[in-house]
């Protein structure tokens, strides 16, 4: 019988559609007619149910019954058309002969067209214009990698030939980085996720461009794979990936950069501090070079108190900024200049950030990441040696007042006055002399009320931003302010088409609605972008109402079985479903325990009223020996039978080796006291029973103690021990042990899922 892989044959020629940003990796889109043609060309395969025998007398060791079973299965088997999975194709550019393998994304392209990702267009030598040329990029080792080269053409739309081609499952692939200095910690997880999400096939000589964080791009050449051929399929297979440098020079350069990076991370007197952990109310001193970051982490703090992050810089240096990002399932990245939640980017030498404990970012935070960043002046050469900038960082729970003593008006005495030029307090008798000197040497800024020496560099370089209230005293601070808040060209988000003319707006976008923002999915438990190509948009009503990210909404559509009721529930609905179970748990009626003081059985809620009225609260097993068919409306005969049974236990015992009824059973007393036999006559036993019978006549059944079977007695003892812990009532503990047949571990799980705790009520 032929498999779909061997017999699926289909090919056609299609025009390349307009660029589509949703297509990445090796994904293509085909028209609906292509799906119909593929189904028509799909082979007919046999689908049979091998879980049951077709003949009743089948014996695999009997050749006659084996042959009969084979013929019966062939007659009963279903035959249907089936496409192979996954569908892969070979795409050829007839103008230059280049070929590449691809996987299908969806059948949504316009008729007669094919949608290609930008990587596939580069590999095929296509472009969106009417003219093109071809070129190949030589790698440092002399290998050839396909790049975005084009061939001259007079046609307005390029045409490609596409063939249905199933590829073998890959087991090994060797990639070669095209640049030196790649650190495996930087690209390993990115490469794994990028291949899993965006690739179905790999083509020999293909160029992989893996996007990294903060505008990084990792470029790899597909050099070799197994099994050998032009391409492999990387879906549903264990693929071993090997990274090798292109040549010895690149390997040596990579090693040198790695060692240099590790040496920079060490604490050097002339370098950037290494960062580390932070403690509340503890000052940390460090240094940072221009353009570098120093990362800190606060792990422990009182979640009910606000925090204040204070950065102090000596020498009035305004180039340092403090960036903060709470680390949580929704915020996984370290704070950076273009990606942070809180920041103080002002020109003040002392930076303060107040973190409210009621902030949604702080409520779900596992830790608080703090980064100290030194702004790099673009007018200075990055190769110039710069001295590190010292700073002091502190996180405290004492929120300082924003109004300092310098901001308050001074208190004047009767012989003091304020100078109108420098705003200082001077004695009245020396005011003329002070003003003569002050107006000659000092100048007052009318906008910020700052006082400067007339010939000082601070006054010559003093500036005020025409767009906001920021000001400074040097050209470097102005260039920093303009580059952050008023850049000449829009700032591009590296993960989407968003553009901003303010770095703070870009950072807010990247930590809120950016599709490329990384989150820890609560359903698949992987770090993934919060919005994939197939996920709904942020403006979707279901996304807004659910409080989930687009990825979580799509991933949460998978179903699973509820461990309490065995119903099939969507993952994203499981919380609500479990809350319904929790409400049912709290509103559940309390089970009634058998009135026999050593019995561990409970009474069903439907029978409780009848049992209390007719059976004195005894379970069926305990009441069975007392039952008679005689009419007894007042219960006098029943009380006599109870008296006789109790007296019989006292005088003769029950004869059970497990009995622990010490007070009202001869056998139980002997078992508990270690063999001491107690002889009780009718004359002695009746006074012992009389108080119980008197209470029973008044409706009090607390004195009833009948000998029971061993499992019931054991469950009652275990229930008493569990109830002694104070978490659950005795009746619930007995019910749990009865449901789980005396297994204490399972009974505790039953209580956790189905029983209310002591004092717990429905809200």
Can you walk through the features of this model?
The chain is α+β, with helices and mostly antiparallel strands and 763 residues long. Helix content is 28%, strand content 23%. The chain is built from 22 helices and 39 strands. The strands form 14 sheets. A six-stranded mixed barrel has the order 1-7-2-6-5-10. It has a five-stranded mixed β-sheet with strand order 17-19-24-21-22, with no helix packed on it. Helix 17 runs antiparallel to helix 19 and helix 20 packs across helix 21 (730-739). The longest helix has 18 residues, at 248-265. The radius of gyration is 41 Å and the shape is flat. The relative contact order is 0.05. This is Ubiquitin-protein ligase E3A N-terminal zinc-binding domain-containing protein. Residues 271-282 have a biased composition (Polar residues). Residues 271-398 form the DUF7590 domain. Residues 80-130, 169-245 form the Ubiquitin fusion degradation protein UFD1 N-terminal subdomain domain. Belongs to the UFD1 family.
Describe the structure concisely.
This protein is of the alpha+beta class and 763 residues long. It contains 22 helices and 39 strands. It has a 6-stranded mixed beta barrel.
């Amino acid at each position: 019988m032929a498999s779909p892989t061997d017999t699926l044959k289909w090919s056609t020629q299609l025009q390349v559609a307009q660029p589509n940003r949703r297509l990445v990796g090796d994904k293509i889109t085909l028209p609906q007619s292509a799906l119909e043609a593929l189904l028509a060309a799909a082979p007919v395969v046999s689908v049979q149910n091998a879980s049951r025998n077709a003949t009743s007398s089948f014996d695999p060791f009997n050749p006659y019954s084996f042959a009969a079973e084979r013929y019966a299965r062939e007659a009963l088997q279903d035959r249907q058309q089936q496409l192979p999975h996954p569908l892969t194709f070979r795409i050829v550019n007839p103008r230059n002969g280049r070929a590449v393998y691809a996987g299908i994304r969806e059948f949504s392209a316009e008729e007669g067209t094919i949608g290609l990702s930008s990587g596939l267009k580069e590999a095929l030598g296509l472009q969106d214009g009417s003219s093109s040329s071809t070129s190949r990029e030589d790698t440092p080792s002399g290998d050839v990698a396909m790049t975005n080269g084009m061939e001259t053409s007079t046609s307005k739309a390029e045409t490609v030939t596409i063939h249905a081609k199933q590829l073998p499952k890959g087991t090994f692939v060797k990639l070669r980085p095209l640049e030196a200095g790649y650190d495996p910690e930087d690209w390993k997880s990115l490469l794994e996720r990028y291949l899993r999400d965006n690739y179905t096939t790999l083509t020999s000589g293909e160029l992989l461009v893996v996007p990294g964080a903060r505008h990084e791009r990792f470029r790899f050449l597909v050099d070799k794979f197994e099994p050998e051929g032009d391409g492999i399929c990387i879906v549903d297979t264990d693929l071993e990936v090997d990274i090798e440098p292109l040549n010895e020079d690149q390997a040596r350069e990579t090693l040198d950069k790695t060692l240099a990076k590790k040496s920079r991370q060490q604490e050097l007197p002339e370098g950037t501090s290494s960062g580390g952990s932070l403690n509340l109310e503890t000052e940390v001193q460090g240094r940072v070079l221009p353009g570098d970051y120093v990362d800190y982490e606060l792990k422990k703090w009182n979640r009910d108190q606000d925090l204040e992050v204070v950065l102090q810089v000596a020498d009035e240096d305004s180039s340092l900024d403090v960036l903060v990002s709470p680390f949580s399932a929704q915020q996984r990245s370290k704070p950076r200049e273009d990606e942070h939640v809180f920041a103080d980017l002002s020109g003040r030498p002392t930076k303060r950030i107040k973190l409210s404990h009621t902030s949604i970012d702080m409520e779900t935070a596992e830790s608080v990441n703090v980064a100290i960043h030194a702004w790099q002046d673009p007018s200075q050469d990055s190769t110039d040696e710069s001295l590190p900038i010292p700073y002091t960082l502190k996180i405290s729970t004492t929120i300082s007042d924003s109004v300092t003593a310098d901001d308050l008006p001074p208190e004047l005495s009767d012989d003091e006055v304020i100078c109108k030029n420098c705003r200082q307090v001077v004695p009245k008798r020396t005011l003329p002399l002070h003003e003569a000197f002050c107006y000659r040497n000092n100048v007052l800024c009318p906008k910020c009320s700052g006082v400067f020496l007339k010939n000082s560099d601070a006054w010559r370089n003093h500036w005020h931003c025409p767009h906001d209230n920021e000001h400074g005293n040097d050209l470097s601070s102005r260039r920093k302010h303009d580059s952050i808040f008023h850049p000449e060209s829009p700032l591009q988000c590296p993960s989407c088409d968003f553009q901003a003319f303010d770095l703070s707006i870009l950072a807010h976008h990247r930590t809120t609605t950016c599709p490329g923002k990384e989150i820890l999915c609560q359903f698949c438990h992987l770090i993934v972008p919060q919005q994939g190509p197939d996920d709904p948009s942020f403006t979707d009503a279901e996304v807004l109402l659910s409080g989930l990210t687009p990825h979580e909404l799509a991933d949460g559509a998978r179903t699973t079985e509820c461990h309490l009721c065995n119903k099939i529930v969507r993952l994203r609905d499981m919380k609500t479903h479990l809350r319904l179970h929790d409400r049912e748990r709290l509103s559940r009626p309390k089970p009634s325990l058998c009135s026999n003081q050593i019995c561990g059985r409970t009474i069903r809620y439907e029978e409780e009223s009848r049992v209390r009225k007719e059976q004195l609260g005894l379970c069926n097993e305990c009441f069975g020996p007392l039952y008679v068919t005689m009419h007894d409306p007042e219960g006098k005969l029943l009380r006599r039978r109870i008296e006789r049974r109790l007296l019989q236990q006292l005088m003769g015992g029950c004869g059970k080796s497990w009995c622990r009824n010490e007070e009202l059973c001869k056998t139980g007393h002997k078992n508990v006291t270690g063999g001491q036999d107690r002889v009780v006559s009718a004359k002695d036993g009746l006074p012992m029973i009389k108080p119980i019978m008197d209470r029973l006549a008044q409706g009090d059944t607390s004195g009833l103690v009948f000998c029971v079977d061993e499992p019931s007695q054991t469950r009652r003892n275990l229930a008493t021990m569990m109830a002694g812990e104070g978490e659950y009532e005795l009746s619930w503990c007995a019910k749990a042990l009865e449901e789980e047949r005396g297994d204490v571990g399972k009974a505790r799980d039953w209580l956790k899922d189905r029983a209310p705790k002591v004092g717990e009520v429905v809200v």
